[in-house]
Design brief:
The complex is a heterodimer. By secondary structure, chain A is α/β, with parallel strands linked by helices. In chain A, about 35% of the residues lie in helices and about 25% in strands. The chains are: A alpha/beta, B mainly alpha.
Chain lengths: ~500, ~325
């Protein structure tokens, strides 16, 4: 397919041409002087790390971001969308990673969402069902228009959302991570539908972390890094390693953060297993996860957004009940009925969002003591003991300001993160599970967190670090497993590993 | 507005309201500002006050209990049902020793609270709906036990607590004071009390800190049931009769007392101190309106307007806080 279509894309005119696009958020540049051309009848793959700028560019195209520098031309005419409604009217539609279908309505109603055919002011059901049937068939999608949307597999729901976007008149469709939740046959079916759409002269932007998928379906691949468009190439002529190399930019920029070189993992295969995970599975989120979490070792779990790692963390802390599999602590099987049971079993968890683990309107010391109140006193509170403990942590973790009666909301993000860690450290747990422990932190605060986690590991704690950012895992972990679509696909232990090898495995 | 005043608005606004009402009625009516009338006011708020103690726990958790009045009524009727009634009372009651009757009544209200707790936590019914159903169930229990009749006798101890006094001080006021004090101590000085505030402040964060959030929510529903039940027994003794729909006005009074006092409807802020102020505002308002020349039908409207203003302040304070937080 690629030979013919890439040749075609060279001849066809630009459907959408953007030039000199810059956009910044609060002084931080998200896009710097980007040129981007999307041709009629092409599938254009867009790749780059988190924060490289691809989503920002797509949001400008879709009318989400309305303030930016630069020019945009659609079919040769200059345009500047003031809203998503503007963009839709101009024929630009988007299918997000989180589908926006209505599960309780029928397939036909979803296809016709917001524009049901009517006869005399009453919904014309027959016309709607027949119209939906025809439209879906023309795209090669096999679904009963009367079926309830929520009863269909995710892959099919996604195709129907795509059908809806096309049906509403979109000539450009932006797909954000369309394959992250799909099984291989579902991916193939999506690709067939996309090729059909392309053949009808419409254009598709395909944003994904799954480079194999991007290369398999795209005519052109554009690579973003640090807000710049690095290169656009026909997909037929490039391979995955070539793409990864340009995505992470081999040591050209921000050396200390890029981890492009090899890191030798100091795994400890002899250390005793503290938490043994066997065959854990929970619905669509993850399946058949088996892990040994060892004392004095940091286990890193890396995967893309939506790979199931966030749900896995919740299952380890009793927040999400796994459907299959077992957990054993010190070789004793445990059932975690709720988070309180997990805490008693010796598991501690710091979730990725600070908002969901801290009490903003309470003083720092109450935030730190909440997880250990039962140890300080069974029935009565002992605020002086709470304050003493909090002061000790504030000093040990250099939390600023060190006043423990300060309301949490007046602390900076990095200091808040330290408070979230501190609440588990008074009586150290057996297993500490950290989800995205350094997300959104400045370099100094990151270093502090790395130091704290290493210190805990050296005291014999078993630590699990889960992240969608390779740097986080590489900077912290002694052993790394890679998750992909809910399963563990690769383990790196006692060997050299680098960012591109991680990306390649995921 | 200075930052301190703004941060204390939740506590200051009700207090200023109370002072203003006291001054207004004191000037408007010579019979208002007397010691006797002060005792009157305290007696009048007692039943709603005991209910409000339990409700404070529930609202601090950002939940609601609409069944408090119905549970109070049912418990009052249960305790009368197990007491020997006079011959002219046409109720097929089951006379038992007073202590047993009280025990059964306490079990009944705790059980109704437990049903609320299970509905809200284990099944996951929103408390608003669950307790609405319980409101009807409580009314049903009342109807079944008295069948449209009126019972009068209650165990001696209950009669003494509800209608007796020690010296010049009515026992019912002392019971209210004990409940308010106990509620304050539990909320302020115990681990459970901290969990109530933290669960109300950020439920997700409490859960991720290993707090058994469902247990806390269940416990506050049971506490609310028991407080309502005690209030119901006191009320039956205080009014001198047990009948259907006797407590209907207390649902609004109890909720109003908690909210007017400044406890946040969104959970995590407020406490028994606020509830005391709220009770006094309500008590002074109800009592004071009787002391001034005013259309008695207008009183109902005035109460409604005062409640509306309190709700506006309650929500406004929350909005100010949130905008400060996001800055």
């Amino acid at each position: 397919m690629s030979d013919a279509s890439s040749a075609a894309s060279g001849e066809t005119p630009a459907r959408l041409a953007m030039s000199g696009i810059s956009k910044s958020f609060g002084g931080v540049a998200a896009l710097r002087d980007v040129d981007f051309v999307l041709r009629a009848g092409e599938i254009h793959g867009l790749v780059g790390e988190n924060g490289a700028g691809k989503s920002t560019l797509m949001k400008i195209i879709a009318g989400v971001h309305t303030q930016y520098q630069g020019r945009m031309r659609l079919d040769g005419h200059p345009v500047h969308f003031r809203s998503t409604r503007d963009a839709l009217a101009a024929g630009i539609g988007m299918v997000h990673q989180e589908l926006s279908v209505v599960p309780d309505l029928s397939v036909a109603e979803n296809v016709y969402l917001g524009k049901q055919p009517t006869r005399g002011g009453i919904v014309d059901w027959r016309a709607m069902v027949e119209g939906a049937r025809e439209h879906l068939a023309s795209l090669g999608i096999d679904a009963d228009p009367r079926a309830r949307m929520g009863s269909l597999a995710i892959g099919l729901q996604q195709l129907i959302e795509l059908a809806r976007v096309l049906f509403s008149g979109a000539r450009i469709v932006i797909l954000d991570e369309p394959t992250s939740a799909l099984s291989p046959p579902e991916v193939q079916r999506l690709f067939e539908v996309l090729r059909g759409v392309k053949a009808s002269g419409r254009s598709i932007v395909f944003i994904s972390h799954f480079l194999d998928d991007v290369l398999a379906v795209s005519d052109t691949v554009t690579i973003f890094r640090n807000g710049r468009r690095i290169v656009s190439e026909p997909a037929a002529g490039v391979d995955k390693a070539w793409v990864i190399e340009r995505m992470i930019g081999r040591g050209h920029e921000e050396l200390e953060e890029s981890y492009t070189g090899n890191i030798t993992l100091d795994s400890k295969p002899q250390a005793p297993v503290v938490l043994a995970v066997r065959g854990l599975g929970a619905g669509r989120a993850f399946a058949d996860v088996s892990l040994d979490i060892r004392a004095g070792e940091v286990l890193g779990i890396y995967g893309f957004m939506g790979c199931g790692v966030i749900e896995l963390a919740r299952a380890l802390f009793g927040k999400l009940k796994p459907r299959t599999g077992t957990l054993a602590i010190d070789s004793k099987t445990v059932r975690l009925a709720n988070t309180a049971a997990a805490r008693r079993a010796g598991i501690a968890f710091v979730p990725e969002s600070r908002r969901s683990m801290l009490f903003y309107r309470e003083p720092v010391y109450k935030n730190m003591s909440i997880a250990v109140l039962g140890r300080i006193g069974r029935l009565w509170l002992r605020p002086s003991a709470e304050r003493d403990i909090a002061r000790r942590h504030a000093e040990a973790l250099s939390i600023r300001p060190p006043a423990v009666d300060t309301l949490l909301q007046s602390l900076s993000g990095g200091n808040q993160q330290k408070v979230a860690l501190a609440k588990w450290l008074t009586w150290p747990p057996k297993v500490l599970v950290l989800s995205e422990p350094t997300r959104g932190m400045d370099v100094g605060a990151k270093d502090d967190v790395v130091g704290i986690v290493r210190g805990l590991r050296d005291r014999g704690l078993a630590v699990v670090v889960m992240s969608t950012e390779p740097e986080t895992v590489l900077s912290l972990a002694d052993r790394i497993v890679v998750m992909k679509k809910g399963r563990i696909v690769r383990e790196f232990a006692g060997e050299a590993v680098s960012k591109d090898r991680l990306l390649e495995a995921a | 507005m200075p930052a301190f005043l703004r941060s204390q608005m939740r506590n200051i606004a009700p207090f200023v309201t109370l002072i203003a009402l006291l001054v207004f009625f004191g000037v408007a009516s010579p019979s208002f500002a007397t010691l006797d009338n002060a005792a009157n006011i305290l007696t009048q708020i007692s039943v709603a006050g005991v209910i409000a103690v339990g409700l404070t726990f529930v609202i601090l958790c950002a939940e609601i209990d609409l069944s408090v009045a119905a549970v109070a009524n049912a418990t009052g009727i249960v305790v009368a049902y197990f007491t020997q009634q006079e011959n002219y009372v046409n109720i097929a009651n089951v006379p038992l020793p007073g202590i047993v009757a009280i025990g059964l009544a306490l079990l009944a209200c705790a059980f109704l609270g437990l049903v609320n707790a299970i509905g809200v936590t284990a099944i996951g019914i929103p408390s608003f709906i669950m307790t609405l159903a319980m409101m009807q169930i409580g009314a049903g229990i009342c109807a079944l036990l008295v069948r449209g009749q009126i019972a009068y006798a209650v165990p001696d101890f209950v009669a003494k607590m509800g209608a007796g006094s020690i010296g010049p001080i009515p026992w019912i006021v002392i019971v209210l004071a004990v409940f308010l004090l106990a509620g304050h101590i539990v909320l302020t000085y115990t681990r459970f009390g901290r969990y109530v505030y933290m669960t109300g402040g950020n439920r997700e964060a409490a859960e991720y800190s290993g707090v058994n959030v469902k247990l806390v929510l269940g416990a506050v529903m049971v506490i609310s049931g028991v407080c309502s039940g005690v209030a119901g027994m006191l009320g039956v003794a205080h009014f001198g009769s047990a009948q259907q729909n006797e407590f209907d006005g207390y649902l609004l009074d109890a909720i109003a007392a908690v909210v007017v006092g400044g406890t946040s409807l969104f959970g995590g802020r407020g406490g028994i101190g606020n509830t005391i102020i709220g009770l006094l505002i309500l008590g002074v308002l109800n009592n004071g309106l009787d002391h001034v020349e005013i259309d008695s039908f207008l009183k109902i409207l005035i109460r409604g307007l005062i409640l509306l203003v309190a709700l506006i302040i309650n929500v406004y304070v929350q909005a100010v806080r949130e905008s400060e937080q996001s800055n």
